[in-house]
Fold:
Amino acid sequence: MRKVMRTRGDWNQRYESGELPWDTGRQDRFLAELVTDGTIAPCSALELGCGTGTNSIWLAGKGFDVTAIDISDKAIAAATGKAEDADVKARFLTLDILKDAIPGAPFDFAFDRGCFHSFDEPSDRSRFAEVVAGSLADNGIWLSEIGSTDGPPREIGPPRRSARDVMIAVEPHFELRCLESSCFDNDQDFAPRMWLCLMQKR
Structure:
């Protein structure tokens, strides 16, 4: 069975091991499409669960003012080094989003690729959505990629959340602009199903 990672130590061990199937080393294609077609224009942006910083670095290179957070200080160290190597400016911070204040708020845009679905408890997912809303400016946009319950049973891959799980957590704070069934962009032998969820702060 997949080990559920809950603590900073769990995530640090994963980054130390180098076993990072979610880290393709290239910008997420769904994020890139929304930026390229102008749906999301350069603005102040927050990435939640940024990992080694690939998407934050890409956004910064496109003119976004980026703050990126992750619970793992190992991930943040890797992201900071990658940004320096790319000669790109972005703020990378080690934070626990359910406990720590996020500097720089409010932001115009928030992005998470698999952060929302990492919380097993409905109360934690609701708290996560509340924190994202509180970090966004009026009418701010949140793009979230969430492992879904679509597809056959599996023992590996991202946690699986239903459309109902998503809506219960986000609906009090966000207007849903898109909830689309898709597959994660990855380099694995299979592409886990996901929800591509685009929301606007109420």
Q: What stands out?
A: The chain has a mean pLDDT of 91.
